[in-house]
């Protein structure tokens, strides 16, 4: 398909000043500051992207926030906030007021008369089609003449029935969310087969789902390299914690191996184990006896939720950054957002051998049992692991996974897939922005 115009729908940026008391509790998701963005109109303003996402826009970022917000440098983008379910319409808390839309991006909030309804299916599809039409009209006003549908869940597959010029399905999790099994549902298999481009973020998901559509690309999670590599003062709540500090920054969740961590805490009493982030969810964590015991160990510290400006400073002041995941079919499919955030700090990193970390075994020390972990941590604390050359080597790996490079690749796939006559401008723009 040869196009002279294109379109992408996206999400509004976070407020420039967000009162801390209004922030939902979170761990490793990030708050991206406006000064990170390119000024001026999108590189290819004739393209419009409609971002169909599972959650309301907020200043607490996950991969879809990083990708869509940066795509607004290349295309016009609208993030379509999902409408509240009909039974919860009155009780559902809406996202806070957004800044005025800027060139390239905006957030579309569904009015109360367009709720989410699951049954009957025809009515559900009609309401979603109407919401997508609202987003398309917004893009038309911005000069976008051709539309990209960007799906972040298989449940948005009915959107493919609406008029569009290109479609993307981005897989950044196994949506069964089941630690005992992974695989394809008929709906997801059909969605993968119907879209023009599939993006998959982890090697295991690529193995499981990458063979169904010939236009499938592996694009892992990345890092805001400048935010995590720039020297930052030691956080005040770390100052009193003795070294060596073994630190985790992110969601405090059931997928972490709490029995393993308790074994490390008891075998290595000279080490301080530090957890920075929000419990998610607390009731499931409290059901794990190992978690309950660990919270009372004298060398274990839980520091709670932090904003991104605060969170980015912690890895720099850990002695070793850790990713102690349980090993099961679900965690084998993840690609930790914190991987490259840790590496950007330059500090040594240790983790369990889930599939995505195996590819970084030359950079991340992998261990399974408590004894192996204690040995790996002591190795990571040794002078040879903390030389300037080792620090730079880790940071170079992170730099290769800068979000602008990764999102630029996605933009390139979209523009070339649509045969946009100016697709070649994207790579040049990204190379200029990300060159050291």
Outline the structure in words.
The protein is α/β, with parallel strands linked by helices and 436 residues long. The chain has two domains: 20-222 and 402-434, 3-Layer(aba) Sandwich (Rossmann fold); 225-398, Glycogen Phosphorylase B (Rossmann fold, 3-Layer(aba) Sandwich). The protein contains 16 helices and 13 strands. The strands form three sheets. It has a six-stranded parallel sheet with strand order 10-9-8-11-12-13, sandwiched between helices. Strands 4-5-6-7 form a four-stranded parallel sheet. A three-stranded parallel sheet has the order 1-2-3, with helices on both faces. Helix 1 (63-71) packs across helix 15, helix 7 (258-267) packs across helix 13 and helix 11 (338-345) packs antiparallel against helix 14. The radius of gyration is 22 Å and the shape is globular. The chain starts with 46 loop residues before the first strand and ends with a helix.
**In the CATH hierarchy, what is the superfamily of the largest domain?**
Glycogen Phosphorylase B
CA-CA gap between termini: 36 Å
Under CATH, the topology of the largest domain can be stated as Rossmann fold
Domain module tally: 2
Indicate the CATH class of the largest domain. Answer: Alpha Beta
- Helical percent range? 25-40%
Report mean pLDDT, rounded to a whole number: 86
Largest sheet: 6 strands, parallel
Discrete helix count: 16
Low-pLDDT runs of 5+ residues are 1-35
Radius of gyration: 22 Å
What's the CATH architecture name of the largest domain? 3-Layer(aba) Sandwich
Q: Helix/strand/pairing class, anyone?
A: alpha/beta
- The number of E-state strands comes to 13
What letter string, H or E per element, gives the SSE order?
Answer: EHEEHEEHEHEHHEHEHHEHEHEHEHHHH
Shape: globular
Sheet-strand content, in percent, reads 5-15%
Spatial ordering of strands, largest sheet? 10-9-8-11-12-13
